[in-house]
Amino acid sequence: MPNAVEGGQNSQQLPLHCSTSAGTEAWQLQVQIQNNDTSPWLILRWHSPLDAWFSEFLQVSQNGQKLLYQGAKAKRGEPSEEDLLLLAPGETHTEWLDLTQAYQLVMVPALVQFSPIAVMPHKPGQQMRWQATQQQWLLCPELQLLPKSDSR
């Protein structure tokens, strides 16, 4: 699966890379977004791992059944500067997620699939402002999590 799909007016591969891995604790996972470009990029926190469980940005399934998202769902207007993360050239941003904060899991493997993350190139010196016409999509790879004995 490629790590980028076209969005907005652009059809090029993104210079951003998303990786996922299991954490050391039960039902914990890590998401890393790396900027391999020579220019900064903006990431919209909404509906992404950077959203702190204020939206459903994962699809989690066990035994072939999609689990119900039990976290908050924020209503929002236009994105403000606080809703954006500026990822500098060469920088990597890491988020740790505990699935038990938003899903009721049982002791069987879980398949975790991510919604695409909205990203946009940013020109240094310009105001941080989201422009939907410049938006592109970053895909993160799905992850199979295995239960651990200390799972809740």
Topology summary:
Layout: E1 4-5, E2 16-22, E3 28-35, E4 41-44, E5 58-62, E6 65-66, E7 84-87, E8 92-98, E9 110-114, E10 117-121, E11 136-138, E12 143-145
Antiparallel strand pairs: 1-11, 2-3, 3-8, 4-7, 4-10, 5-6, 5-9, 9-12, 10-11
Task: Give an overview of the whole structure.
The chain is mainly beta and 152 residues long. The protein has a single domain (4-143), classed as Sandwich (Immunoglobulin-like). It is built from no helices and twelve strands. It has strands at residues 4-5, 16-22, 28-35, 41-44, 58-62, 65-66, 84-87, 92-98, 110-114, 117-121, 136-138, 143-145. The protein has a five-stranded antiparallel β-sheet, with no helix packed on it. β2 (16-22) and β3 (28-35) form a beta hairpin. The two termini are 32 Å apart.
CATH architecture label name: Sandwich
Spans of at least 5 consecutive residues with low confidence: 1-11
What is the strand tally? 12
Q: Bin the helical content.
A: under 10%
Main sheet: strands, sense, barrel? 5 strands, antiparallel
Whole-angstrom Rg: 16 Å
> What integer is the average pLDDT?
88
* Proportion of strand residues: 35-45%
Would you give the CATH topology? Immunoglobulin-like
Structural class of the secondary structure composition?
A: mainly beta
Spatial strand arrangement across the major sheet: 1-11-10-4-7
Distance between the termini: 32 Å
The tally of structural domains comes to 1
